[in-house]
Amino acid sequence: MTTPADRMRAAQVTQLGEPPVVGEVPRPVAQPHQALLQVTSAALNPVTLSTASGVFYGGHPQLPYIPGTEGAGIVVQGTHLAPGTRVRFEASEQVGGALAEFCAAAEAECVELPDGLGDDLAAGLGVAGLAAWLALRDAVRLQPGERVLILGATGAVGQIAVQSARIMGAGRVVAVGRNRRVLEHCLTLGADAIVAMTDAQTDQELALAFTEAAQGPLEVVFDPVFGLPSRAASQACGLRGRLVNLGQSAGAEATYRSRDIRGKLLTIVGHANWAAAPEVRSAAFRELAEHAVSGRIQLSVEAFPLEEVALAWARQQQSPHGKVVVKPR
Description:
This protein is an alpha/beta fold. The protein folds into 2 domains: 7-113 and 300-327, Quinone Oxidoreductase, Chain A, domain 1, CATH 3.90.180; 127-273, Rossmann fold (3-Layer(aba) Sandwich), CATH 3.40.50. The chain is built from 9 helices and 15 strands. The protein has helices spanning 46-53, 119-139, 156-167, 180-189, 203-214, 227-236, 258-263, 278-294, 309-317; strands spanning 7-12, 21-26, 34-44, 70-77, 86-90, 102-106, 110-112, 147-150, 172-177, 193-196, 218-223, 237-245, 267-270, 301-305, 323-327. Strands 3, 4, 5, 6, 7, 14 and 15 form a 7-stranded mixed beta sheet that branches. The protein is elongated and about 65 Å long.
């Protein structure tokens, strides 16, 4: 059975804590500042699931709603974008997310895709790639030759951070995580050394392991995990070390020693993609896209059809060490 022209198939969150269900909903109408897009690939992110579970600190849209904050698609109608243009876009779950056959997105949040960059990779590279790139480039201003520790290196954001640090000229890149197989893969992505953590390690033991792997005090720490690993990393920092936090997968709280903060003049900053202006995010994504096309940034992507969104949801919950995307068409 065909869907009427003013309707479309979409995944909807109808109950907090449960996977989305696929159904038929009204097709969006683009406003003057928006482009109507035919969605070819929509990425799942940790925040997508935490929002749908009702545990995200920023709250959740009114139920039911279409989830998904980013994707790739083809312009159907636009003011400044020509029909047929392939773009990476950001969507608002408040008015209609990306897990649908069509999405209305602000043209300022659309970036034309270069030839050679597939839609699935483009969708998966967005939020994760921007978090890694902007945190290292802007939040802590990574300089060539510096020793960098990448916590959470086995996740999508961490793997992109390893590659970004290498592109930016880091002197030594240390990848940290729990999955040794994925950590060993990080060595092929540009890491110089790896540290496989265990639950039995204390913060002092981890700090020593970090310093030894870095072959000296840390100058930059990329921290998407917080908790004990973040505390240990702060202890391994040298004078005027910089730590940027952008997540809390290892705990919502972390304690730091005054002697590390004051004695080392340690800088601890936060990063969130939303704080960067749309034009900054767009320019950064273009850089990431160029590196992806050239092969300097690689990322594993698993794709699921819209009808299997519940399976995609479950896969994302398993920490897939890559990106999960849903293909509406």
